[in-house]
Amino acid sequence: MPFWINIVTALTAFAIAAVTGLFLIPLLKKIHFGQTIYEDGPAWHKSKQGTPIMGGFMFILGSAVAITLGCGLYRMNSQTAAIPDNTGLYKLIAGYVFALLNTVIGFMDDYIKAVKKQNLGLRAWQKMVLQFIFSSAFLVVLYMLGDVKTTLNFYWFELDIGIFYYPFILLVIVFLTNAVNLTDGIDGLCGSVTVVSMLSFVMLCSAMGLWEYSIFSMAVAGGCLGFLVWNLHPAKVFMGDTGSMFLGGAVVAIGIVTRQHLLLAIIAIVYICEALSVVIQVLYFKATKGKRIFKMTPIHHHFELCDFSEYKIVITFSLAALAAGIIANLIYSLA
């Protein structure tokens, strides 16, 4: 597939997401869909009280239009012989629908925060139940589309764990989706890290010949860039769980379809560290009856309390994601 199709896809997603902000942000302000700041967070976050949430609709809309255009261009540009069946397209649809289902969970969470002014939103068990249902459905669809292998790919070797593959991957999906969600805590962070991660997936999917998922990755990257026009510090809008849950679903969908489990873990290392910092903090707090390893979690808040500016955190975390993406693609190129 010519790379210009990916460029057109990214530019389309960027333009739609950026322009959508002109209309969406005033609407969100008008209906008072603003952020309620968590009382235990950094004190200076209080100034962000009331900032519109649900800005994730910008890149959700942008990526949807861009994927449709990109896939259309890909089909028109390809010879019939180059597209033996529609499996790739069906997997793309399955992945995007899975991301949208996670958006539903995020929207419900944001709605509770915005309307009832309860910062915690949905209860944890309610989120988890819905996530396990949607994740299970995604795996079933992939199985029906021919993804029946039960091996974990560690690049240098594969480990067949039989029927245990499905519960394990189910846990991975839910963990990573929530890890992306946790990364959304300061202006521009989740969007910037996701742009870098998605570009890493573009290169990986292109190398693997997964053209539809290359388009998917590029569309999300472009959409996030358009969103960052409005979300970089000082943010005029937040993506909310509506956006971060969509991005979590997108990251997971792309990673699972590639079946490069080790490379997925490497590319997603920033998200994983964010989630693990919370787990480590909670376990250590309970084990030591009140002591903490980090000043605050997720770990980006620890850096905030260590006097890192929001820009510095975004740049540092994005560079870490870039290094991880380069390493993952280098590993794959050694095949």
Give me some keywords for this one:
335 residues, mainly alpha, two-stranded antiparallel sheet, 12 helices, 2 strands, 2% strand
Task: Tell me what the structure shows.
70% of the residues lie in helices and 2% in strands. It is mostly helical and 335 residues long. It has one domain (3-260). Strand 1 and strand 2 (158-160) form a beta hairpin. The longest helix has 30 residues, at 87-116. The radius of gyration is 19 Å and the shape is globular. The model has no long low-confidence stretch (mean pLDDT 91).
Explain briefly what this protein structure is.
With 335 residues, the protein is mainly alpha-helical. It contains 12 helices and 2 strands, in the order ααααββαααααααα.
Strand share of the residues?
under 5%
Number of helices: 12
Integer tally of domains = 1
Identify low-pLDDT runs: none
Order of helices and strands: HHHHEEHHHHHHHH
- The coarse overall form would be globular
* Strand order of the biggest β-sheet: 1-2
The average pLDDT value, as a whole number, equals: 91
Helix content: over 70%
